[in-house]
Amino acid sequence: MIDKVVTAVVGELNRFLQSKHNILEEKVIISHLVNADGSMAVQEADKIVMTIINIEAERNKSSTATYQPNKRGNFTKVTPPVEVNIYMLFSAYFTNENYLEGLKFVSSVIAFFQSRQGVFNEQNTPALSGSLSRLVAEMVSPDFRDISNVWNGVGAKYLPSVLYRFKTIPIEHKKPEPEIPSIRKI
Q1: How is residue 183 annotated by DSSP?
Q2: Dist CA 169 CA 52 (whole Å)
Q3: What is the 3-state secondary structure (H, E, C) of 111-162?
Q4: Which fold has domain 2-61+80-173?
Q5: 179-180 and 82-93 as β-strands: parallel, antiparallel, unpaired?
Q6: Which positions fall inside the Pvc16 N-terminal domain (predicted)?
Q7: d(CA 69, CA 18)
Q8: What 3-state class would DSSP assign to 4?
Q9: What are the two backbone dihedrals, phi and then psi, of residue 11, each rounded to the nearest 5 degrees?
Q10: Are 121 and 134 in contact (CB under 8 A)?
Q11: 77 sits in which H/E element
Q12: Are 163 and 146 in contact, with CB atoms under 8 Å apart?
């Protein structure tokens, strides 16, 4: 499910940037900034790089299984999905000569989320159709220490960037559960 959300959001963002800046290329790519061996993962400059920097459990949702009646009058165990929030970092990976251009595109990323009021649904993001009815994105503003920790964790030098938290994404594996007969007599 996370892959579908990331692909849908980046696809919509690329369409927005193409329209806003009258360009044909896709400016946003999905990638690490740095490979595990320390080398740069992105080979092409002048891009906005989207990287997932954290996946956290949504604490306000219950994960306790319940029993629901089925059509035959018995009960079936229903385990709710795990709800997660993901943190997407959008970084301007631009050459020194195009630094200001990178800042322009970071501003456009912010404008994209502002134009949707942070809401993604089946109407404004068709790629989510059938997967997720609603997704909310909110900008996160970490303090300087947290920013330093993020970039140390990513393994790269600081780049102009903006961070968004997407909440809540359900993840589940539906498997057939045995039926539990209802008690008819005592």
Answers
A1: P
A2: 14
A3: HHHHHCCCEEECCCCHHHCCCCCEEEEEEECCCHHHHHHHHHHHCCCCCCEE
A4: STM4215-like (3.30.2000)
A5: unpaired
A6: 5-184
A7: 50
A8: helix
A9: -60, -45
A10: yes
A11: strand 75-78
A12: no
Supply the pTM of this predicted model: 0.83
Residue type, 180: I
Q: How many residues does the chain have?
A: 186
| Closest to 19 (Cα-Cα) out of 95, 106, 108, 92 | 108
Residue type, 77: K
> Per-residue pLDDT tens for 43-72?
899 999 999 999 998 877 666 667 777 777
Distances in Å between the alpha carbon of 152 and those of 42, 49, 134, 148, 158? 17, 17, 33, 6, 9
Pull the structure tokens for residue 31: 């990638």
Token pair recorded at residue 113: 């989320």
Separation of first and last alpha carbons in the chain: 45
Take residue 21 and report the two structure tokens written for it: 């800046």
Residue 107 in tokens: 């501003």
